[in-house]
TrEMBL record:
Residues 1-22 form the signal peptide. This is Ig-like domain-containing protein. Keywords: Membrane, Signal, Transmembrane, Transmembrane helix. It comes from Oncorhynchus tshawytscha. PROSITE patterns: IG_LIKE.
Length: 998
C-alpha cells in the first residue's frame, strides 16, 4: 500500500498488517486496518480474498454504506466519489481501491465485497480499512506573550501513517527538515515572522502560514493549490498576502526557473499576463490564451523594507489540457453500439460540473452533463465527431472519424432540414429504415406437404447469428439455422429468437389455421412511474379441441396466480375486454413490482400454456438532476428530469419551482432545432423568463431545463412531473445562486439626533450569497474619501462620539465574489455651546459718554438660539441677543460682564470681561504737569514723613482694592480720575488737585 499525491515523487510504504476475516474457505485479508493521510492526497487500500472451489466471482467492489434493502453500494456509483475512485484487480485475487483528491468527508471505514455466480451471492467483510483524512497546522506555544516560543507541525484529527519527514518554512523560505513534528529550535516572537510546515513528498499540501506573535506577520495564502484548465482558455491564479512593513514590490514567477523572473517581463508570456488586486485582497495573476507549455507551478513573492517572501514556498500548480474524443470499441460493426468519450488529462477545476457539447460533421448534435455519447452504428458513410464544453464552445477537441460506409440497415432521411412554423406544434416528416422485430414467415411447399419457417428481419443481421426455435413455447435446442421445415398438418405454434437475445423472441405463428397455442402481448416492455397504475394486456388462442378453464398472470417470484398473494390484495385486478383478450391492472406500483409478467392458459385435458417470454415491467422513480446545484449569477444551470427508462412514447414534462408550475413548455417554445434522430423530448428554456428554444435530444427519458444566464431570482426548490401524472413529483432539488453584495446600505443606531458624548453605531447591511465576509468603512475628508476603520465587521461603533466625527460615511461589503458599496450617509453630531467668549467693539479706551458693543461668540450645533447677558454681582440679566450695546456710558457701567449661550442641548457661560470707564479727557500738558507734581509730592513725603503725619487731617490717601478674580477694581474717586480698560492689569492716575489743573 502507498500514499501518493499528484506531482509528488515520494511513495510512503505502509507496514503490512494482515487482517484475515472469514471461514469455510471464504476470507478477505486487508493489508492494513487504518490509514491517516492528508487532505488532497491519494490513497490506496488493498486486500486479497479467497473462496471455495466451484464458485465463479462475477463482481468485486468496495463500499462504505448499504442501500435501503441492506445491500452494499459500490463506491464507483457514489456521486461523491465521481471521477476519484479506481479499482484494480490482479490475477491472484488481489484488489486495490485508489481514491484521489481526498476530502475530509472521505473519512470512513472501507470494506471489500465480491459476488459469485451461486446463491451465496455477496460476500462483504468487515471491519475493513478505516481511513482518516486530516489537515496540517502549525501550533505555537505558549499562546500568550513570551520571548521564545515552540512550533509543532500537527494534524487536526489523527497522527499520519508511516514516518513522515517534516519540512519547515519561515516567511516562505525553506528552513529545515526533520522526522520530528516539533521544530528543533525555539523561535523569537517576531511580529513580522510567519511559519509553515509540510510533509516531504506532499509539499503542495503545506499548512497555512501562522504568526508567532499577533496577526500582522508577513504571509501568503494561495486560493487554490491545483488548477486544471483548457488549452486556449484564460485562468486566474490568486492569493492573499500580508506584509508587516510596507510592500515595495510584488510579482508572480514560475518555480521551474533557476532565478525568479517576473512573468510580466518573460517573453514567453508577452501580452498574455496581467496582475490585478490590492493589499490584503485577492492578488490575481491572469494568463490568457493558455498553452500546454504554460503547465507549471506558479508562486508569488513580495518585498518590504526588511524582508523578501521566500521563493521556495509551494504555490499553485497549473495543468493545461486539451479535450480529446476516444472511440470504443476500436472496430465497429452494423448494429453495435459505439461510445464516444470526451476526456481531459486532468479534472477541470474551473468547470467542476461541465456540460459537454457534441458535434457531428461540424454541426451541434446535443449537449449533456455526461462525457459520453452512445449511438447504434448504421450505414451512412464516414462521420466526424468532436466535443466541447458549454461556455467554452470555441475550445473544441480535435475531430475523430467513425467509418460506417460499409454498413447497412439503419437509416433516417428527413424530407426537410429546416422548418419555420407559426404554430406551437409541427409534423416532422422523414423516412426510416431500421430492423423490425423478428418475425416467422411461413411458406408452403405443396408438393412435399411441408412448410418452411423462416426467422427474418427487414435487414440482414451481421455476425452470423445463431437462431433458436420454439414450438408451443418450448425450446427446440437442436435447431440453430434461420429456416426450419415442418409438416403442413401440424397444428403447433412456432416462434424464434437470436441466441444471446432470447428475450427478443418473435411473436408465435400458427403453422395451420389460427387456433394454435400462442399468447401475443400488446407490449413487450413497459416503463411506469412508482406510485402509478399499469395495464398489462395480451391476446391468446388455443386449439379448438380444448376448453378454457382458467387463466392468470404470474412471475418467477410468484409462480401461481398473482392475485392470490397477500401483497397483491387490493392492487391486482383482472379484466377481459373480449373473449380472448386479457388485461391485468396493478395499482400503487412500487419498485418491487419490477419483474417479467407472463400469462398462462389452463384448459381441459390438462392443457397448460404460458406465453414466454412475458412482459418486462420496470417501475422507476422520477428524479431531478441539477448541474451544478450551486452557481454564481450569470452562469448556466442544467436541470434534467430523469427516469430509469422511457415512460411512454413521447412524455411531456412539467416543471415546478417552490411548488408552483412553471410555464407549460408545450405551448411556449418558438424555435425548433432538428437533429437526425427519431425521438425528441428535450427542452431548453432560454432565457429564464421567456421560454423560447426547443432542442431535440435523442434520449427519450430526459427532459432538460436550462437556466442561462441564471439570476438570484432563479434560486429555489425545483421538481418535475409527467403530464397526466402530476401528483407524482420528483424529489425537490435546491438551486443555490451565489451573488455579490447588493442593496448595500448604512444605518445609524440609535435613530434621531446624535449628541456628543453618546454611543453611536453605524451598521452596514447587504444582501449577498454567500454572506459578506468583510466590511470596510470610509469617511469623506475634503473632496475625497479615506479609509476610516480597520474593523472588518458590519458595525462601526463610536463609544463617545465627538463633534469631529461629523461627516459623510459609506461602507464596502465583500464576499469573495465582488464588492458592494453603499450610498454615503451624513452623520451630524449635535453638541452644546463651547469656547464661548466675549469681544468688545470698539477696542481701546472706553470714555464716559461713549458707546460700546459687546459680542458673544461660541461653537455650537445646532446654532445658539438664545444669548443672555449678565453683569457680575447683579442678579437679573442685563440684556439678550448675541450683541449687547451700552450707550452713553457712565461710571456706574463699569464692572465684569459675561454672556450665556444656549441651544437645545445645553448652555455655556463665557469668561467675564472687565469694563473700565474713563472720565472726560484733559490735555496732554495737564497730564504731564500732574505727573511732575506727583513725583515732587513723593519726594516731599519721604523727607517730611513726620510732618505729614502731623498734618494727616490735611492729606489725602489712595486706596487700591484687588478683586478675588485677579482683576483690579478701582474704588470710587474724584470725577476727574482717568479709568483705563485693560484685562487683569487695570490702573488709575489721579490729579493732585481736585480740579485736575495746576
Amino acid at each position: 500500500m502507498a500514499l501518493r499525491t499528484a506531482g509528488s515523487v515520494l511513495v510512503v510504504f505502509l507496514w503490512s498488517v494482515a487482517v484475515a476475516l472469514g471461514q469455510n474457505g471464504w476470507s478477505v485479508t486487508y493489508t492494513t486496518q487504518s490509514i491517516c493521510t492528508l487532505k488532497g492526497s491519494t490513497v490506496e487500500m488493498s486486500c486479497s480474498y479467497t473462496y471455495p472451489s466451484g464458485y465463479i466471482v462475477t463482481s468485486t467492489f468496495w463500499f462504505i454504506t448499504n442501500n435501503a434493502e441492506g445491500n452494499p453500494v459500490s463506491l464507483s456509483g457514489d456521486p461523491d466519489y465521481k471521477g476519484r475512485v479506481m479499482y484494480h484487480r490482479d490475477k491472484k485475487n488481489g484488489h486495490t481501491l485508489t481514491i484521489t483528491d481526498l476530502r475530509e468527508s472521505d473519512s470512513a471505514t472501507y470494506m471489500f465485497s465480491f459476488i459469485t455466480d451461486q446463491t451465496r451471492g455477496r460476500y462483504p467483510v468487515s471491519p475493513g480499512v478505516t481511513l482518516s483524512v486530516t489537515d496540517l497546522q502549525v501550533k505555537v506555544t505558549p499562546t500568550w506573550w513570551a520571548t521564545w516560543k515552540t512550533l509543532t507541525c500537527s494534524t487536526t484529527s489523527c497522527p499520519l501513517t508511516g514516518n513522515p519527514t517534516y519540512i519547515w518554512y519561515k516567511n516562505g523560505q525553506h528552513l529545515d527538515e526533520s522526522t520530528s513534528p516539533q521544530y528543533k529550535y525555539s523561535v523569537y516572537n517576531d511580529y513580522d515572522a510567519s511559519y509553515s510546515c509540510a510533509v516531504k513528498g506532499h509539499e503542495d499540501l503545506h499548512s497555512p502560514a501562522v504568526c508567532v506573535q499577533g496577526q500582522s506577520c508577513s504571509r501568503v495564502t494561495y486560493t487554490k493549490r491545483r488548477i486544471c484548465v483548457l488549452k486556449g482558455s484564460t485562468v486566474d491564479i490568486s492569493c492573499t498576502y500580508v506584509g508587516y512593513y510596507s510592500t515595495t514590490s510584488t510579482f508572480w514567477f514560475r518555480s521551474d526557473k533557476s532565478t525568479p523572473e517576473d512573468l510580466t517581463t518573460d517573453p514567453g508570456y508577452a501580452g498574455r499576463v496581467e496582475y490585478t488586486g490590492t493589499y490584503r485582497g485577492p492578488f490575481t495573476l491572469r494568463i490568457t490564451d493558455l498553452r500546454e507549455e504554460d503547465s507549471a507551478e506558479y508562486r508569488f513573492t513580495f518585498k518590504t523594507y526588511s524582508i523578501e517572501w521566500g521563493h521556495s514556498f509551494p504555490g499553485t500548480t497549473l495543468t493545461v489540457t486539451d479535450l480529446q474524443v476516444k472511440v470504443t470499441p476500436g472496430t465497429v460493426t452494423e448494429g453495435s453500439w459505439v461510445i464516444l468519450t470526451c476526456s481531459t488529462t486532468c479534472t477541470l477545476t474551473e468547470i467542476p460540473n461541465p456540460t459537454y457539447i457534441w458535434y457531428k460533421n461540424g454541426e451541434e448534435l446535443f449537449s449533456d452533463s455526461s462525457p459520453q455519447y452512445q449511438y447504434s452504428v448504421s450505414r451512412g458513410g464516414s462521420d466526424s465527431y468532436s466535443c466541447a464544453l458549454r461556455g467554452h464552445d470555441k475550445l473544441s477537441s480535435s475531430k475523430v472519424t467513425v467509418d460506417t460506409s460499409s454498413l447497412s440497415c439503419l437509416k433516417v432521411t428527413y424530407t426537410s432540414r429546416g422548418i419555420c412554423s407559426l404554430i406551437p406544434s409541427v409534423d416532422l416528416p422523414c423516412t426510416t429504415i431500421y430492423p423490425t422485430d423478428l418475425q416467422v414467415k411461413v411458406t408452403t411447399d405443396t408438393e412435399a406437404g411441408k412448410r418452411t419457417l423462416t426467422c427474418s428481419t427487414t435487414c440482414t443481421l451481421t455476425g452470423n447469428p445463431t437462431y433458436i426455435w420454439y414450438r408451443n413455447g418450448q425450446s427446440l435446442a437442436w435447431l440453430t439455422s434461420q429456416q426450419h421445415s415442418v409438416w403442413s398438418s401440424e397444428t403447433e405454434s412456432y416462434s424464434c429468437a437470436v441466441k444471446g437475445h432470447e428475450d427478443l423472441r418473435s411473436p408465435a405463428v400458427c403453422n395451420q389455421g389460427h387456433n394454435c397455442w400462442r399468447v401475443t402481448y400488446t407490449k413487450r416492455r413497459i416503463c411506469v412511474l412508482k406510485g402509478s397504475t399499469v395495464d398489462i394486456s395480451c391476446s391468446y388462442t388455443h386449439p379448438t379441441s380444448y376448453i378454457e378453464q382458467g387463466s392468470f398472470w404470474f412471475t418467477q417470484k410468484h409462480p401461481v396466480d398473482l392475485s392470490s398473494y397477500p401483497e397483491s390484495a387490493g392492487r391486482v385486478q383482472y379484466n377481459r375486454k373480449t373473449e380472448k383478450h386479457h388485461t391485468m391492472t396493478i395499482t400503487h406500483l412500487t419498485e418491487k413490482d419490477s419483474a417479467e409478467y407472463k400469462f398462462r392458459i389452463i384448459t381441459t385435458d390438462e392443457g397448460r400454456f404460458s406465453g414466454l417470454p412475458g412482459v418486462m415491467l420496470t417501475v422507476t422513480d422520477i428524479l431531478l438532476e441539477m448541474d451544478p446545484t450551486s452557481v454564481s449569477e450569470g452562469e448556466r444551470v442544467t436541470l434534467r428530469c430523469r427516469t430509469q427508462c422511457a415512460v411512454g412514447l413521447n412524455p411531456t414534462y412539467i416543471w415546478y419551482k417552490n411548488g408552483q408550475s412553471l410555464t407549460n413548455p408545450i405551448t411556449s417554445y418558438n424555435s425548433l432545432i432538428l437533429d437526425p434522430v427519431t425521438s425528441y423530448n428535450s427542452l431548453i428554456l432560454d432565457p429564464v423568463t421567456s421560454y423560447n428554444s426547443l432542442i431535440l435530444d435523442p434520449v427519450t427519458s430526459y427532459n432538460i431545463l436550462i437556466l442561462d444566464p441564471v439570476s438570484s431570482e432563479d434560486a429555489g426548490n425545483y421538481s418535475c412531473a409527467l403530464e397526466g401524472l402530476e401528483r407524482i413529483l420528483s424529489p425537490e432539488e435546491t438551486l443555490t445562486v451565489r451573488y455579490g453584495p447588493r442593496n448595500t446600505s448604512v444605518s445609524v443606531s440609535p435613530s434621531g439626533e446624535i449628541v456628543e458624548g453618546s454611543s453611536v453605531t453605524l451598521t452596514c447591511s447587504s444582501d449577498a450569497n454567500p454572506p459578506v465576509q468583510s466590511y470596510t468603512w470610509y469617511k469623506k475628508n475634503g473632496g475625497h474619501y479615506q479609509f476610516s476603520n480597520v474593523n472588518t465587521g458590519p458595525h462601526h461603533v463610536f463609544y463617545l462620539i465627538k463633534s469631529s466625527d461629523t461627516g459623510e460615511y459609506y461602507c464596502e461589503a465583500w464576499n469573495a465574489i465582488k464588492t458592494g458599496r453603499s450610498e454615503s450617509i451624513n452623520m451630524d453630531v449635535k453638541y452644546a455651546p463651547k469656547n464661548t467668549s466675549v469681544s468688545v467693539s470698539p477696542s481701546g479706551e472706553i470714555v464716559e459718554g461713549s458707546s460700546v458693543t459687546l459680542t458673544c461668540s461660541c461653537d455650537a450645533n445646532p446654532p445658539v438660539d438664545k444669548y443672555t447677558w449678565y453683569k457680575k454681582n447683579v442678579t437679573s440679566p442685563k440684556a439678550s441677543g448675541q450683541s449687547y450695546n451700552i450707550t452713553n456710558i457712565i461710571s456706574e457701567d463699569r464692572g465684569e460682564y459675561y454672556c450665556e449661550a444656549e441651544n437645545i442641548i445645553s448652555s455655556n457661560n463665557s469668561t467675564a470681561l472687565m469694563i473700565i470707564v474713563a472720565g472726560k479727557q484733559t490735555s496732554v500738558l495737564t497730564a504731564a504737569v500732574g505727573i511732575i507734581v506727583v513725583v515732587l509730592v513723593l519726594i516731599l513725603c519721604l523727607s517730611g514723613l513726620m510732618w505729614f503725619r502731623k498734618k494727616a487731617s490735611k492729606s489725602t490717601s489712595d486706596t487700591r482694592d484687588t478683586a478675588d478674580d485677579g482683576q483690579v477694581n478701582l474704588l470710587e474717586s474724584e470725577d476727574d480720575c482717568v479709568f483705563f480698560v485693560e484685562h487683569f492689569l487695570p490702573h488709575v492716575v489721579c490729579p493732585l488737585f481736585p480740579s485736575g489743573r495746576l
